[in-house]
Amino acid sequence: MNLVPAQYRNVSLADVPVPLDEPALGGYLVGRPVYRRTRYLVVRNAGAYAVMEVSKESELPLFSPVTAMTVIARPEETAFVDAPDTDTAIPTQLARAAAAQAPGARCVIVRGRYGHVSFIADPAPVRVRVVEVVPPWPPKLVDQLERVLDLAEDLPPVELVADLVDLASLARTRPAGHYLFPCRAGSASQAGPRATSASQPSPRAEAASPPSPGAEAAGQAGLGAADVSYLDEIPEREPWTLVGCARSRSIHDWFYGGDVPTVDMCPRNLADQTGQTPAPTPVPTLTKCCLLEDRVSSDDGLVVVPWGASLAQIRDGLQLALAAGRPAPQPGRAGEAPAAPGPTSPAATGPASPAATGPTSPAPRPRR
Ligand SMILES: [Zn+2]
User: What average pLDDT does the segment 117-129 reach?
Assistant: First the structure.
């Protein structure tokens, strides 16, 4: 599953003057020279495509005759798509293009960015559940993961399953006339933060006209007429209900002391409460926690990154999640993007020498 060429140089595209069945292709290809880096051939005839894997006599000379070939995908199970925004070196991007443009095809050949051609056979992106609170929009952890995946050449294709918890809905589970959120960014909507006199709690009377920033944010967040204040602005103490995590609770204790009704919004705790996606294999969960400051933790399929995780930490967390979701170590085929690599992923195999030629590797040229 998830067979993806490790490098675009391994893939050659060739027009062939024979039918795309195994005997005809074998008769045509075996004995023909191919470029030393070529491992896969995308062959085309009369608008149909097939994908082959070839063995060569040697990888030392620049070109070497094909000695054997196996069919990766026959024409009837192969689709060709143009996806000019897709970087075909990134398995997740390949899988995304395949799912969007040729769902159901066993093998999808993608012509992507720079005109490079690659393919994915038996696409089965690894699902990772992401538990996150919103706002802000876009959900930060999901957005960061997507950005990491967009560059992840050495990870298998991943499909993020966002499990979002709306903070206003969460707050409403404990009805109150006044809510205290950790910060404005964590409560306001797409409108973003606004300049306001931070230390003034907004009296409810102001909510009519003009709307106070707090009331407006509350309205946007679906809290109706409730007042909203923000802990990081250290407002004057009111009989509010704190919507926050353990760290917010500690900060509240520090400044105000005393008891405060609290709605726990720590995604790590929410991850246990929200429904696990039903799946034949366990889906690893990735989330964040206010109490983690500089490390990533992984325990029994639950990976937790710090609240303000860097992209590097997000990447570490993703690798841990993939390792946690892996049923058993898989041998993998040399040179392929492995199904679920550990923290150190193998690079492409084959002779480790610089490519001698330009970006497109020559394919066997039919002589007509
Ligand atoms: Zn937490």
Answer: 95
